[in-house]
Design a protein that fits this description.
The chain has 405 residues and is an alpha/beta fold. Among the domains are: 30 residues; 114 residues, no CATH class; 125 residues, no CATH class. The protein is 61% helix and 11% strand. A hairpin with a 4-residue loop joins β5 and β6. α7 crosses α11. The longest helix is centred in the last third of the chain and has 34 residues. The chain starts with a helix and ends in a 13-residue tail after the last helix.
């Protein structure tokens, strides 16, 4: 009997321990704080959520659900990420030390071995440009679906989008079947042509030749750079700039008539002297044309020359020179008057067109004009010489009076 009672006592103790453990699991609740703060949460699905459901803040129990209400005008309210309406509003009470912000995420999660549902508040960093503020009395729109459900929903949407895309591609390919076939054939021919082209390039070694040309060009540019550096080190460009400056100064000096070369180029003395030499050469050529290359042996030329020299040598006074000069000018004026009369007579002649268009007349008249220009240049030369002599104050040498305008 003693052994039987002992076994009964052990069984009672074991039953009491099991009952106490079950009571702890089912009826005892963890501490959730003073529950002095109240928030309103809106959900589109509250499956597994009821009054007394725990509220976790960053994984720690801080409160519980105290009431559940149905939203009357839910169809006019915003929807969640899956397009579902927020039909329920839950009132929760949390510890006074907990403050919710507009950046925090509120969702439903499953925890424990038995799959107990709870409401989780997860603090989150604000997005770029988002202003962080605490939530006071406005409702909080929570995420009713868990992450796995959201992932399946997104996969379903992606599958629908891919199906629409494949359907569109199928219809488009069926509609443009002939064009696609031609494109494929053309692409195949282009690939064959490109392959043959590459083979030709490999056979002719064009790539190697191009590489060699690029190497030669690079070496040439390096040599040029080295040469430029040497010239710069030797101050070649500074010397060149100095030479350019000297040339510019010389050119400016010549253009302004300074120096011997400037005076020769800018002043009329050189031109007049050249004209004088050309006039003498023209006189020489006239004598050659008239008397032959040995004109100085011709008696007629000698007599004419002797008369001119005798006449010029007889000029011993200013009055005789003036008389000779006036006679010569008078001869020139008479010759010009006779030419004018001749032109007037030709103008009145019925055959004037034939006369003026005659090649001989045109040639002779052009020769006359050249003679007049030469005479004018000679007179200018004599006038310049006279002005030069007067400028130097040379009054010992006799100078003819200036008759040029």
């Amino acid at each position: 009997m003693g052994e039987q009672i002992k076994n009964m006592m052990v069984g009672l103790v074991m039953l009491s321990a099991c009952a106490f453990t079950i009571a702890l699991i089912l009826f005892l609740k963890p501490s959730v704080g003073d529950e002095k703060k109240t928030y309103d949460l809106r959900f589109s699905n509250i499956n597994g959520i009821g009054i007394g459901t725990r509220v976790l803040f960053a994984g720690r129990p801080v409160g519980e659900v105290v009431s559940i209400h149905e939203i009357q005008d839910a169809r006019q309210e915003p929807t969640d990420s899956l397009g579902r309406l927020y039909f329920y509003q839950l009132e929760i009470r949390v510890d006074s030390s907990v403050t919710l912000y507009n950046t925090d995420e509120v969702t439903i999660q499953t925890s424990g071995l038995l799959g107990e549902k709870s409401i989780a508040i997860i603090p989150m960093q604000p997005h770029k440009g988002q202003i962080v503020r605490p939530i006071m009395h406005e409702p909080i729109y929570a995420q009713s679906a868990d992450s796995l459900e959201i992932a399946f929903f997104q996969l379903s949407k992606l599958a629908e989008t891919m199906d629409d895309t494949f359907s569109f591609m199928h219809s488009w390919m069926k509609k443009n079947e002939k064009a696609l076939s031609g494109t494929v054939v053309s692409l195949e021919e282009a690939v064959k042509a490109a392959d043959q082209f590459l083979k030709d390039i490999n056979q002719q070694q064009l790539v190697q030749s191009a590489k060699q040309g690029i190497d030669h060009f690079s070496n040439t540019m390096a040599s040029m750079q080295s040469a430029m550096q040497q010239l710069q080190e030797q101050q070649f460009f500074s010397h060149l700039s100095s030479i350019a400056c000297n040339i510019d100064k010389t050119t400016n000096s010549i253009s302004s008539g300074k120096g011997t070369l400037g005076k020769l180029i800018e002043q009329d003395d050189l031109y007049l002297q050249v004209v004088s030499l050309l006039s003498k050469a023209d006189t020489l050529m006239n004598d050659v044309n008239q008397y032959g290359i040995l004109f100085h042996l011709n008696k007629t030329w000698q007599r004419t020359r002797l008369q001119k020299v005798t006449l010029l040598n007889s000029l011993q006074s200013p009055s005789s020179f003036q008389s000779y000069f006036e006679n010569e000018v008078q001869e020139v004026n008479l010759a010009m008057a006779r030419l004018s009369m001749l032109l007037q007579k030709a103008e009145k002649n019925p055959e004037k067109q034939a006369i003026f268009r005659s090649g001989q007349f045109t040639k002779q008249f052009a020769e006359f004009l050249r003679e007049v220009d030469t005479l004018a240049d000679n007179v200018r030369l004599y006038n310049e010489q006279l002005m030069h002599m007067q400028h130097e104050g040379n009054t010992n040498e006799f100078c003819p009076p200036c008759t040029c305008p």
